[in-house]
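Q: My labmate handed me this sequence with no annotations at all. I'd like to see what the chain might look like in three dimensions before we decide whether it's worth expressing. Could you predict it?
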Amino acid sequence: MAFATINPDLSYWQKQTKPLYPDLIWNIPERKTGRVSVIGGNAQGFSTVIRLSEFMSQNFPFSTLTTILPDALRGKLPNLPNLEFAISTASGSFARSALLQTAFEQSDAILLAGDLSRNSETAITLSNLINPQNPRPLILTRDSVDLLAPEAASWLLRPHTFIIASMLQLQKLFRSVYYPRMILLSQPLLPILETLHKFTLTYPATILTFHQDNVIVAHAGNLSTTHLVDTGYSPIGLWNGQLAARVLALNLYNPNKAFEATTAAILYK
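A: Here is what I predict for the chain of 269 residues:
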């Protein structure tokens, strides 16, 4: 695989102090539209997934929002709207099922919301369901990134894939595909941006990460940075799933504008 050269004039880098793409916010429709699936949870953890689904149903006009949990949790939860259970492994994580396959094939957008545990069968199941030809947004956040990192070579070339990940999680992705240029927590901001610029020229995924008080978006060689103090998030709050939900919504309603919509999501309230 050929690796792109780095543009030395940094023309690919934009700094967001106020919304760079405010018009995208107005594209969120008033009428309900879009079939969205939120997938996550295991027998030992599911509360974050439920809270995230509630946040999404209260804040975005999706026509349907289906939350899919492993069936090891059946009977442990009250009757909740649009809650479905997929076949689980013996340890209570996701196993291969027709319900998951249907969700991946028919949803207009999917959020892998985390709490997926470290089950290898679940990792293989989910990575096999990621179709490189599917043009709909797929968002990976929280421990879904860790779980699927070893299989990254099979899904990282898929367009319309959005990775909401810490620097440590990105290191795992880079190692998984033997990327020759590594990112380090000790590096200043500029070398990180240069590496993400080059990486996203090679791979079509969109990356959102955080380094040195900056929220970074990288896609197709383009980069934006937003100071954390301008966002309303805390360093921990970046990873609770709400930012990932906003990324999903703005990309669902602004197709083929991955960089712009993901950058806009950071300042969207």
